[in-house]
Amino acid sequence: MKYIRVLSPYISRGNYQFFILWFFKSCLRQNITVQKGLSIHWLVRLAIAKLRVSFNISHITFKNKALIVLGAGYIDSFAWPFAYNCEIIPVLWDTWPKYWPRLVASLKRHHVKYAFFTQSQVAKMIEQEIPEIKCFHLLEGIDLTGYKKGDILENRTIDLLELGRIYTKFHTLIDKTQIPLLKEHLFRTPEDGLLFPDFESLTHGLSNAKVTVCFPRCDTHPLQAKNIETMTQRYWECMLSRTLILGRAPKELIDFAGYNPVIDVDWNNLPSQIEFILSNIRTYQNLVDNNYRFALRYASWDNRVKKMLSLLHENGYRLKK
Hints:
The chain is α/β, with parallel strands linked by helices. It has 14 helices and 12 strands. It has 2 domains: 2-141 and 300-319, Rossmann fold, CATH 3.40.50; 153-298, Glycogen Phosphorylase B (Rossmann fold). It has helices at residues 18-29, 42-51, 76-79, 100-109, 120-129, 168-171, 199-207, 217-220, 222-225, 233-240, 251-257, 270-279, 285-298, 301-314, and strands at 2-7, 33-35, 65-72, 87-93, 114-117, 134-137, 158-162, 185-186, 209-214, 244-247, 263-264, 317-319. Helix 3 links the parallel strand 3 (65-72) and strand 4 (87-93). The radius of gyration is 21 Å and the shape is elongated. The model has no long low-confidence stretch (mean pLDDT 93).
């Protein structure tokens, strides 16, 4: 039997990997003992990753201790120096194809036995590349705190909201002359800063939007994501805000929910589709209400941490007393 702890994550100033911090806080709520991490400058961490000085030394590894390590890409800079004598159980986000050679090498170097990924395709790929590692998928989650359900759709003032970087394929098809009902259309231009500069303004904007555009990263950033289609927190944000999602849902979300929470975009007739949606916005209220209830029940990172602990328990791991 092995007792598990979680390593407190490294979050640098200006780093937007707050989802890792959310997951860590969920670990605390599940009473996982914390191993305090080291305060190391990010340049040193980068050097650790580049030089591959983080690895596991099997003959000095504690036989009854395991450490959950949260990170992005691959684990080297997050696991050092604890990996030398602790079994590492990585929980990884953003394992995009460009990281795969380093990810595979790192998992082998750290003698990983169990690993968790927020991208299901990557979990399958690693199991094929390294059969001795048991990989699990943890669907992307969110911290429910602070999101607003907003008013019913027909009372909202933002007709169409495009968050984040412009998805050119979608944006260039919007012709306001063909969409008379599209009065308030919010999006970020290249010269602008963030459309919503802080969390409060983001939640206010989402909860005041009738329709919000959302696509998987493999659609909007194909050079980075390649063919990796995965769930992102943006879908949960929209569902918790009861805004109608227009775009495309990742298969991970549809499989998890058992239905499609997103209105699939009609690429052949987008202006007419948006006009139709806005003129019939009342008919979509049941969908956004159902999305909201589903997100409240299943979106929290707490659910993912409970699943992780259950899977580890089945394989002989226990919380440290």
